[in-house]
Amino acid sequence: MRGAGMVCLAVLLLLCSAGVASAAWDGTVNATWYEKEIAAGHTGDPDNPFLIYDAASLAALANETNNNQSQNGFFEKHILLKTNLDLNGATHLWTPIGNTTVLSPSSQIFNGTFDGNNYIISNMNVTTPSTSSNIYVGLFGYVEDATIRNVGVVNANVAVSSSSVSAYVCSGGLAGYVKHSAITNCYATGVITTESSSSFYTYSGGLMGLAHHSSIITNCYATSVVTGSSHAGGLVGWTGDVGYSTTIMNCYATGAVSVTAHYAYGAGGLVGETSGGSITNCYATGAVTAKSLTSATYAGGLVGLASQISITNSVALNQWVNASSSGNGPINTGRFIGHNSGATLNNPYAWRYMGLNISGTIVRPVPAGDSNATNASTAMIWDNQAFYEDLSWDVTKNWTMGHDAAYRLPVLTWQSTGPVVDASYLNITHAVNATVIGTGGSITPSGKQNYKDGASVTFTLNADPGSTVDTVTDNGITQSISNSYTISDVVQPHEIIVTFRSSPVPPVPPSGDSSGNMDNAYRVLFDTSGGSLISPVTGLSSGDVITAPPAPVKDGYTFGGWYADEDCTKAWSFADGIPGDMTLYAKWIGGDTPQATAKATTEATTVPVPTPSPTASVTTPVSAGTTAAGAQLTLTQAPAPFFGMLAGLLAAGVLLRRRE
Question: Could you tell me which residue ranges the GLUG domain spans (predicted)?
Answer without folding.
Answer: 169-193, 264-289
